[in-house]
User: Fold these one by one.
Assistant:
Number 1:
Amino acid sequence: MIHLFINALSASAGGGLTYVRNVLPRMANRDDVRTTLLVGEMLRGEIAESTRVTVLNESYNGSSARRFWYEQRDLPRLVRRSGADVLLSTGNFALFRSPVPQILLSRNALYTSADFLRDIRQRGDYRLWIDTKIKGGLARWSVHRADCTVAPSEAFAAELRQWAGKNVVSIHHGFDRDIFFCTAVPLPQEVQSRLDALEGAVRILFVSHYNYYRNFETLIRAVGILKAKLHPRPVRLVLTCKLVSKENPGSYQAEIAADLVRRLDLGEEVVELGTVPYAALHHLYQHCDVYATPAYAETFAHPLVEAMASGLPVIASDLAVHREICQDAALYFPRFSPKALAERILQVVESSKQRTSMQKAGLMRSISFSWDNHVEALLALARGLVAGDH
């Protein structure tokens, strides 16, 4: 039996939460694995201890910089006390002196993204620019300190290899169709009512909290173009966030996008639902017609797999990661072109043959992603480290 210590203090939103929620149950169900888990407030109430899973009750709240120093100071003691064989660091940063072999999960494309650094300079957010440069330096150093670094896609692994000058392994994240679709949790009544009111409109879905790198402004401008081209048929952009800074994680200024909505007179077209519980998210996909992502930085993009599994045609910015995940099941467009995005959406909306073809391809592609396979590959790496094979 191998004993894995998972440091998931950084799992507080989006992909980090999805990762822990899917990986830990699979660890817990195996006879050949024991897991010690360190989590923050977002997950502590969800995780049940068992004979194979120990949840540490260390309490920590603070910025990512403070978390980094907290981990460097206190985590080695916790790992040694647990008796773990391997440390799995899930938050992009490694321990400088890990008492056991260490696998680093690197999932943040912002440190390698020239587009992101250019974007925040143009917005005048120099504090975020400095913060990103500092964290990027720590992330690059972490790749060198870890015994093995794992990326969730080959495209992002290639970026990391070039950026850090060290080998990086790619292991796709997974998708659990049974868990995603077989929940009895309904949509909140307010959300359901708002979706019912959209019947007859072209409904474009984008699942994300607000941030700069998901490139909301390009999508909003595309909706303005579609409003004119589809008239009199209404078009609605359905968002799982609100364009208010305090309603989103991080320091991103969502009011920039909200102001664009007002200037383009799209107050009716942009539907801000706010956060939708993950257990009810599959209902939302089934209420929409097209999934679109204009993101200019990405490492995997779970919503793309969810959309394909839900039978939604996918329109994605032309990133290597998006092409790797969706292959021929999506249509692609230059990431900063609202006109090209609108044209791709029109191509799907106006052709039933195109929609049917993309739906079939998406369903087939979504089957390729498995959390069981991910865990098996991760454990093989861990056993190799213990045996001294890496």
Number 2:
Amino acid sequence: MLISRRRFAALGASGLASAPLVPLLSPSDHVWGQTAQQAGETAGPDSWAQQLIRAAESQIGVTLRYDGGYRRIAFPGGDVERSAGVCTDVVIRAYRDAFGFDLQQAVNRDMKRAFSAYPRAWGLARPDSNIDHRRVLNLERFFLRRDADLAKPDDPSGYRPGDMVTQRVGSNLPHIAIVSDRRSTDGKRPLVVHNIGAGTRTEDTLEVFPAVYRFRFAPPA
């Protein structure tokens, strides 16, 4: 197991974890594993899934810390400083960089159409474009409303490159990661690209935390 199991601190006012789990690996010990091609899986280098994964991996060494503080950002296309972020920012930046698809705008539009369909965990009376898209529970609802959910595989080897998996960490805190085309050193599991404490990394955590949803969201044509 590459990540400690100590619990997150309580959620801050932003609804994002303020004290994330910290990977045990240092950047110099970073484990990449095998690519899907090396492991005999089929994932063409030009597929949209490959583009998504490469866009997520491009954040490694750029996003170096976890910071869930509330920030006022531009709309659309707003972002916090790329040196910091949370798990959702990995996904948001990957879809923007790979396809020009803006989850900030898409989630905001959907919440304006159907605000009551989204979680009310933060006591808001209306959408907030600064933060809504950066909350895992909102992304879960958005992807569910797009019929992007797939059955969770019985074995982690059943996840495909480009899938997204949401998990619950510690005291049931939400987390999201992108399934990579790289695999664990024993070849049995895909790695994931995520930020769970020390910036964007590729790590072996599919079996560390319980999965809630599996999504596959191809960019709109």
